[in-house]
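tool_call predict_complex ligand=iron/sulfur cluster
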Amino acid sequence: MTHQDTSQQQVNWAQAAVAGHASAKHDEDAGFPTHQPGTEHGGREQLVLERIERARRARPRVREKLITLAHGAGGKATQSLIEAIFLDAFRNPLLAPLEDAATLTAGDSRLAFTTDSYVVSPLFFPGGNIGDLAVNGTVNDLAVSGACPAHLSAGFILEEGFPVEDLRRIVESMAAAAAAAGVSIVTGDTKVVQRGKADGCYINTAGVGLIPGGLTLGVSTARPGDVVIVSGPVGDHGITVMLERGELDLDAELVSDTAPVHELVRGLLDAVGPDVRAMRDATRGGVATILNEVATAAGVAVVVDEDSVPVRPEVRGACEILGIDPLYVACEGRIVAIVDPGAADAAVAALQGHPLGASATAVGRIVEDPPGLVMLKTGFGGTRIIDLLVGDPLPRIC
Amino acid sequence: MRFVDEYRDAEKARALAAKIAALCEPGRHYKFMEVCGGHTHTIYKHGLEDYLPESISLVHGPGCPVCVLPMGRVDDAIALAEQPDVIMTSFGDMMRVPGGRGSFFDSSAAGTDIRMVYSPLDALKVARQNPDKHVIFMAIGMETTTPSTAMTVLRAAAEGIENFSIFCNHVMIVPAIKAILDSPDLRLDGFIGPGHVSTIIGCRPYEYIPAEYGKPIVTAGFEPLDILQSVYMLLQQLAEGRCEVENQYSRVVPWDGNTVALRAVAEVMELRPYFEWRGLGFISHSALQVREKYAAFDAERRFTLPGVRVADPKACQCGEVLKGVLKPWECKVFGTACTPEMPIGTCMVSSEGACAAYYNFGRFSRQRIQEVSIESSRA
Ligand code: SF4
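tool_result ok
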């Protein structure tokens, strides 16, 4: 092997990144102290932190030439893709809040409208299959928007050679899940693609539901003092699917938590409705992603107490081995609610009144400073940030 | 998870922190380097610095295998993945590491078959399942992961698997520590030794550090209490005027290492005369290659590689960060042009990299946060 130095043109992309960043900003660098290796100075660190904050607030751009798996992971890359490509092209006031469902008005009534696609692999896993997931996921997006889920559509993309028997099982689960959630599947579509052009079966569902009068929810309404509540143990679904794939050679008695949360949500709203600021179902990207959305949208900080977050020992063990944080792992039947401090105890009690919320608990609180950050008080007694996830540790779990 | 919780007890941490504070000489400043990226990750993930007095700073070392992989080797690996009928297998950490022409992720998006695996044995499984393809394992890591790569090659040889090879990038931590000790930039008071590496090589190879350089080293485990304990042991050595190799992680690290693992490595691999470390340059006898005897399993011998050396981007200061001369945030592009989603340097990629750890977990002012926690506990 020979070593020749052909450095310059090879790392064009890096120079472009630096230059691209320099042009996108920021005059403050003029006053930035010159670089002195090894010096420690709190004030200088503070300046760097502020500079980073500004860089993070800059308009998101998609700099990649090709879509990578990271764009589907629900973390930062997904967010840039949505904001820089979709929102940019479709821009309208209904889409702009980027909530789980859009709120439409028709005459005097308000409707929630949402859609989601499902590409989970494997299609069947302990606790459910892609069919339950497709119905519950959309029902839940409607429910956490405060709506009563009513009607769903279902679109199927099937791969040539897919067993009809499997399709039948999936569709039967969808029917059962729809019945359980009190919704009807009223329209649909089917496409078949050549062998190898899809992986068995993909499903898209969309749904509408009525929002009762007087309710306005939104992550941007969170304010300092509010309490963050989760409705049960986090990460069950993601880890179950991961283990089912058998890539880890681990065994655990785990089942997916896929379930419709509309009754759980109804119970909460009946008890403390006006004091609920926002709800989200913690799917892809987990609880951490939701809290980051809250912090950014409302311009507040979220402080989470690691020891109070419910996580099953099996999930914790698997996460420990995978080197990921359960807070990032998808759930399919858990909600995160932000509620007024005065109503926090009543809210937890209301959630605990439903079997799906039996281990509901407060896990953190909204504070003023530093805006946009989610902080974790670790079980060890230290403090750290919980940022949006970069890259995808567990692809195709929903 | 009893086993783990025992080493994360906040109560014990507070007690230890008090003992640490008591041992610090007033007015003296201490700089300890944690050599291993796993330690860096633990320190930030658990917010361990909250327990240390201001007079102790932890300096992050070069022990992150992904971080020290030079760009040229990434390009070589991508060139391998581009060969017809090749499946490249790699640890997830490696996927986003940028080379001169992009990363594995980019290459995979452009059409190569690159798969994430959790161990080299998984890669061998892929080879068995795809007899019509050639499967290459991107072997990276320090002494900790080298034995499993070596054993996988031995297994492949025993089973007569012909469509499997490794692209060997295994490096060794001891020569790197020596390079840092020889570098004039840095004044260190002691080392927190790499626990996992030491389970393989034991503690003997570090004996030159106190003997020749007069610095104490304490081999430490990966739980936050382990690290606090090792800081305490280092301070104790300094206070008592001792300077030696100590083993905090004796529940796992045998003094002489793991001879079975070392034998497997010696069977399959031999020292390279020199190897490039990203940011640190060429370090002699610091990496391993596959022996002639196992040439059939050596991707470097089976395929022609471009083998072009690529200089680090001008803006990149990973070398200084890896040597502990700069704190991550002191790099000019930290957090602006270089972020985990768009990394320029490798330290921003791996979860064990100092820049990534600081960016993901520690990007806030401690003082401000202490105010926040008081506020939230009052509320
Ligand atoms: S910020 Fe990026 S370029 Fe700078 S040292 Fe860290 S990884 Fe390297």
